[in-house]
Write a structure and sequence with these properties.
The chain is of the alpha+beta class. The protein has helices at about 5-15, 30-40, 50-60, and strands spanning about 20-25, 40-45.
Length: about 70
């Protein structure tokens, strides 16, 4: 599994506001999108493997959002 800390550090490094959109062209299981959601950013993820798409969608559905931007 991809560590959440890596995309978290990158997103925070480049700034994170309510208008921020994180683009992940190789979304895999959705970890980067999950972190963006946790941080209160918008996200777009692309994935061609249907198995990973299902995994990512399930992960994002279950994610509890703590909005750090308010």
């Amino acid at each position: 599994m991809f560590p959440k800390k890596l995309p978290e550090m990158c997103i925070k490094l480049h700034g994170c506001t309510k208008e921020t959109v994180v683009l992940d062209p190789f979304a895999g299981s959705g970890t980067t999108c999950q972190v963006a959601k946790e941080l209160g950013c918008h996200y777009i993820g692309f994935e061609t493997d249907a198995t990973y798409v299902k995994m990512a969608n399930e992960k994002l559905r279950q994610e509890k959002v703590l909005n750090y931007l308010d």
